[in-house]
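Subject — a protein and its fold

Tokens — whole-number codes for backbone shape
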Amino acid sequence: GGPRRLLLVSNSTLHGGGYLGHCQQHIKSFLGEKVKRVLFVPYALHDRDAYARTAREKFESLGYGLDSIHESCDPVEAVRKSEAIFIGGGNTFRLLKALYDNSLIPEIRKRHCEDGIPYMGSSAGTNVATVSINTTNDMPIVYPPSLQALGLVPFNINPHYLDPDVKSTHMGETREERIRQYHEEPDTPPVLGLREGAMLLVEGDKATLQGVTGARLFLRGKKPTEHEPGTDFSFLLTDSNLLN
């Protein structure tokens, strides 16, 4: 297998654009010409047929065939034969439960970590690529057997990261406060807050922030830091315990 390659996108649709429109050039350069077909995982949404149609239309317009795992009679075998995996957004709890129910966690991990096939996620699909789904924004509408996810990277991500609105009178907790509460627990990994329009590209030991918006990085016990597109986040790929 080659070096690990991930494209972790905050959101699949950016205001004013179509499905994956804001990151289609990133997808093309990420998948390249070697990949001919992508295995799509639509488990985060209830209507998997409609979701697969939307994804297929997009990927075919970029020159890639797309197979949806929910159409396969053997999901494990579909992962074993895949050239690239794309897990779409929706509800993160529903998605993770389906990955466990179909015994796909070890299979996807093996295909990516040992065989080196590219992994792309957006939103919930980005959440499940990380250590755990503890920092998702979604409601726990179903019970996965564990909150531990694929662990393809040794930190967590908060997709759709929202900054506090200074004009708002809403007194609920901000995203920053919720992440800080997560970090009050022992041994919690870093959390990268990806704003809408941001994505993280991981190639081997290199991780780079891409897209049009920035990100906020939360390390346990430290003040959050602000980062622009182009930031080198490679240090997050080393053992995250070193950062605590």
Q: What stands out?
A: The mean pLDDT is 93. The first strand starts at residue 5 and ends at 9. Residues 198 and 211 are 5 Å apart (CA to CA).
